[in-house]
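During the no-cost extension, the postdoctoral fellow (Dr. R.K.) reprocessed legacy sequence entries with the updated structure-token encoder. One reprocessed record is reproduced below for audit purposes.
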Amino acid sequence: MDRVLVDRGSVVKKGQLMAEVTAPEMMAQIAEAESKVQAAESDRLQAEAQLAAVQSTYDRLTKAAETPGAIAGNELVQAQKQVEAAQALVQSKRQARVAVEAGVRAQKDLEAYLRITAPFDGVVTDRLVHPGALVGPASDPVLLVVQEVSHLRLV
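Re-encoded structure tokens follow.
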């Protein structure tokens, strides 16, 4: 547990930050995923440059093929197939980047679970955790008890 911002008797509003947990390994995973996004973007740019090069070659061959006998038909077909392959590679690199970005978003969504907020307006009636405490799946699942006091009934 990194920070506990409330104590017994604290009045909290819905969405108010009550505690923060640190997970250095998660920060490392996010940094790694973001570096993969940069690598995927670099790969995509390289594939687009290759596509531009083969497209230029194909365009020149097409222009030269207007003169009868200047270019063999097979060379034109090969150049066209290289363009199609380069287009497929660019599409593949774009999809890879989208997939890696989804991984970053998923990691950042998990990071939101490190911030414990009040689920409703109420009063903290018990605090069972202190800064520096180890929390996680094996620990007590109850960190704070919040009770809604606006609807109390005396019997």
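The mean pLDDT is 89. Strands lie at 3-4, 11-12, 17-20, 115-117, 122-127, 144-147. The remaining legacy entries will be reprocessed before the final report is submitted.
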